[in-house]
Amino acid sequence: MDEKKLKVLAVDDDLINLKLLKTMLMKTPNVSQVVEAKNGADAIGLLKAQNDIDIILLDIIMPVMSGIEMLKVIRADESLRQLPVIVLTTDETKKGEALECGANGFLMKPVREKDVLAKISQLAL
Q1: Cis (ω within 30 of 0) for the bond into 110?
Q2: What is the pLDDT of residues 65-124, one digit of tens each?
Q3: Which of 87, 92, 93 is nearest to 115 (CA)?
Q4: If both were cysteines, with which of 54, 58, 60, 119 could 6 make a disulfide (CB 3.0 to 4.6 Å apart)?
Q5: Are residues 12 and 59 in contact, defined by beta-carbon separation less than 8 angstroms?
Q6: DSSP structural state of residue 2
Q7: For residues 83 and 101, is the Cβ–Cβ distance under 8 A?
Q8: Overall average pLDDT of the 12-35 stretch
Q9: What is the largest CA-CA distance in the chain?
């Protein structure tokens, strides 16, 4: 059986973080594509436009729409509710809130490659 190829949505207002995530993810054989968004509002737009996204890596602290706000929108939307979301943050205190709002996983930044890949294979494959 073929490994599933994942399309990942990475959401972070820090472009360096986005590039790092993308580089990490593209090194892994089971990720076929990484779509980037700079805030929750952009990410929601992308999710509505592309219905083949498999998993979301979501920064919490962002302008326009934070990760927590975006999580609430996703979990309230029938068509997006099932998507696995891994929250990334430098703020340990946000973990409880993120999980309460429907995050499937939580990683502290700076994110380590092996942690991110382990979480993704646990949730999306």
Answers
A1: yes
A2: 999 999 999 999 999 999 999 999 998 899 999 999 999 999 999 999 999 999 998 998
A3: 87
A4: 54
A5: yes
A6: P
A7: no
A8: 93
A9: 42
Structure token digits, residue 10: 């990475």
| Domains contained in the chain, CATH given | 6-124 (3.40.50.2300)
H, E, C per residue of 45-91? HHHHHCCCCCEEEEECCCCCCCHHHHHHHHHHCCCCCCCCEEEEECC
Residue corresponding to tokens 């999580």? 71
Degrees, nearest 5: CA angle 110-114-116: 60
